[in-house]
Amino acid sequence: MFTRALLWRPLAPPSLAGQRTLRTSAQLRSDHLFVHRNTPENNPSIPFEFTSDNAKRAAEIIAKYPPQYKKGACIPLLDLGQRQQGFTSISVMNHVAKLLEMPPMRVYEVATFYTMFNRESEGYANQSERAFLSIQILETHPNTHISDPVGKYFLQVCTTTPCQLCDAMGILKTVEDHLGIKVGETTADKKFTLVEVECAGACSNAPVMAVNDDYYEDLTPETTIKILEDLKAGRPPAKLGPQSSRQTSEPMTGLTTLTSEPTGPGFGLQQGL
């Protein structure tokens, strides 16, 4: 009977061990471009050289590194090129590679890894639309050199977890509604470009928005609009950093330590010591 029961027992399904299974996940899109596509305003045939002042600054940066490690200057030189050109074009990358005697691909790898480098024109719905509009401009004005891809004020709203918990999406929507643009776009007057970034590094002061090199923290919709209006009028916002009443990163409810004068030398020691 035992043998017969074994014979009539249903076979177990085959093991999937060692077999590959097909899985799919939601497609996530980024507002950043990680491959290069030649366009009229961004292609290797457009010459780029540092200005005399920036060339001197570049030499000072390179001199900080031993000759065999001067490739360590790649990031600061790319940043210098972006500040001069308005964005990190393929010509900027090639020039940096030439200065540092690096394979261009090594510079491309750096520029595509760090989102601080803006490698494409902002303000158009997609790459093909941007290229089409650029071609139209060049056909009617052949001597035009398009090199203003990012607005005067580069707005970077952090939406990582700490900022999310403090209504970063509300701040992002406030900026979009007030300026009439979406993430990745530039206003018609070329004053503002808006992007969404990951971790501005000021988590204790969330939510945070960086405007070029300046941080504005502890934002509310009201303070965000005030900052944008000041920038529109061409005047610097009255206050950098926290827009609340606190100083730097101190607790919102006030200091809990270091609230009295520090004790002098020898405090708490025996008299004989």
Could you describe the 3D structure shown?
This protein has 273 residues and is α/β, with parallel strands linked by helices. Helix content is 34%, strand content 8%. It contains 9 helices and 5 strands. β3 and β4 form a beta hairpin. α3 packs antiparallel against α4 and α4 packs across α5. About 10% of the residues have low confidence.
Evaluate the radius of gyration: 27 Å
Total DSSP helices = 9
**Mean pLDDT metric:** 81
Main sheet record: 5 strands, mixed
Q: Record the strand order, biggest sheet.
A: 2-1-3-4-5
Q: Into which percent range does the helicity of residues fall? A: 25-40%
Structural class: alpha/beta
Distance between the termini: 93 Å
From the spread of the alpha carbons, the general shape counts as extended
Low-confidence region ranges: 122-148
Annotation keywords:
single chain; 273 residues; alpha/beta; five-stranded mixed sheet; 5 strands
Summarize, please.
The chain has 273 residues and is α/β, with parallel strands linked by helices. The chain is 34% helix and 8% strand. The protein has helices at residues 2-8, 52-62, 74-85, 90-100, 104-113, 127-140, 161-165, 168-179, 221-232; strands at 153-158, 192-197, 209-211, 214-217, 241-242.
Topology, element by element:
Layout: H1 2-8, H2 52-62, H3 74-85, H4 90-100, H5 104-113, H6 127-140, E1 153-158, H7 161-165, H8 168-179, E2 192-197, E3 209-211, E4 214-217, H9 221-232, E5 241-242
Parallel strand pairs: 1-2, 4-5
Antiparallel strand pairs: 1-3, 3-4
Helix pairs in contact: 3-4, 4-5, 8-9
